[in-house]
DNA sequence: GACTAGTCTTTCCGTCATGGAAAACGTCTC
DNA sequence: GAGACGTTTTCCATGACGGAAAGACTAGTC
C-alpha cells in the first residue's frame, strides 16, 4: 500500500484526470486524452511532459504502422504516486469526521 | 448526498486543508489555522477571504472579551462543496471505469 | 487622550503555473 | 519534393500563490 503523500505533480486538475484515466485503462491515445480533457494539443503535450519528466508516465510511438500515434501509459511509480496522493486526500477528508462530510445538507 | 463536482475554490491545497479542518472541528481560531497550515498571516487571510466570498466559510469576531480573535467555521454550502469535491476525487480515483474512457485498448 | 500591543487585512512585489495560438518539427504518403 | 498528419515547442497573456511590510482596528495602559 502506498504512503499518503501529497504530490504537486499529480494534484493539478488536468494531470489528476490524466492519471486517473491512465490508471483505469493502462494506455490511451494522445487524441483520446486530449478530447477527454477538452484541452488544446499543446496543453496536453505539456502536461504529459511534466508527468514523463516525473517518471509517472511513459510515451510510446509505435512506428511502422501508418501514422504516428502516441500512446501514453502510467508507470509503476506513477501508480504509486497517484495512489499515495489519493490516499492523502482521503486522509484529509477523513480527519474530518466522515459522517459530517456526508451530512452537508442544510445547516447553518 | 452531494453531487460529485470538482470545485476550483476547494481544490487549492491550502484551502482543501482549511476545509478539512473546519469540517472536522466546526470552528477554529485564526491562529490555530495559521499554525496548522504553516503559512504567513497574510496567506491565511487571503485564503479565508476566498472561501468567505464563495460562501463556504463564515468568520466571527466575538467582541467584548479581551483581544479580538477571529473564529472561522464552515457553512452548509461549504460542507456540500467539500463533500462534493471529495466525492469527485473518489470518482476519479475509482480505478474501474473503462467505459468512460473508451480508449482503444486493442492492438496497434 | 496618547500610546502600545495584539490581531487580522491589504498592498506590493516577485515567481511560477496554466492555457491557447501559432510556428516548428518529424514522419509518413503520394 | 510537396503535403498531410500528429506532436512538440515557442511565444504571450493571465492569474494564482506566497511572503514581507504597511494599514487598520480594537482593547488595554498610562
From TrEMBL, chains A, B:
Winged helix DNA-binding domain mapped to chain residues: 15-92
The protein, known as: Transcriptional regulator
Matches recorded under SUPFAM superfamilies: Winged helix' DNA-binding domain
CDD domains named among the record's database cross-references: HTH_ARSR
Pfam family, one: HTH_34
TM region(s), chain numbering: none
Domain of life: Bacteria
